[in-house]
Prior knowledge:
Layout: E1 5-9, H1 11-16, H2 18-29, H3 40-50, E2 57-62, E3 66-74, H4 91-98, E4 102-110, H5 119-128, E5 135-141, H6 155-163, E6 167-172, H7 174-177, E7 199-204
Parallel strand pairs: 4-5
Antiparallel strand pairs: 1-2, 2-3, 3-4, 5-7, 6-7
Helix pairs in contact: 2-3
Amino acid sequence: MTEVYLRRxxxxxxxxxxxxxxxxxxxxxxxxxxxxxxxxxxxLSRFEQHVQGAGFDMVVAEGGGLVACAYGFRVPRTGxxxxxxxxxxxxxxxxxxxxxxxxxxxxxxxxxAHRRLGIATRLVERLLIxxxxxxxxxxxxxxxxxxxxxxxxxxxAEETLRAWGWSRLGVLGPRTVSDVSAGSGSSAGAGAGAGxxxxxxxxxxxxx
Length: 208
């Protein structure tokens, strides 16, 4: 298999490669639950907004073309992202989110042929290593066919996030999760994605 190289893209470079990124997104989610919500057009519509987010950062993996990517941006201090959180945030987490220094891992996607090769791990490490933030968060959509109230994330996604040092914080409502499709990439099949179900919020501290 062709050797895979990682590189960080500027906001301008990300916009220039938006169609290639959308192609990876569609291929990564093909065959997954709710795959119909991951079409080329809907992703580009979301991506257009994401790339304008404060502190936007993106890392891609290339090997004979784009094969994977991870990106995110800072959650606005006064935004609505946390308004759909079920219950009260722990005091320490609430203080961190109020600082405006919380980074949202918005997308992590790896083409099927390049999964289970450690690419997702490398992407996340490269993305998070230089973040000037106090907290990193992501939302993983629940499987509506899983066990429990509203389903549970796939075991692979949960195990991978834990292995990466993330911890589960709580549940986020479907209104917010529908704007976020992030997951554990290679180990979670097509990753976790946006949908009509609620999602689990995972957090971790920056790597630095």
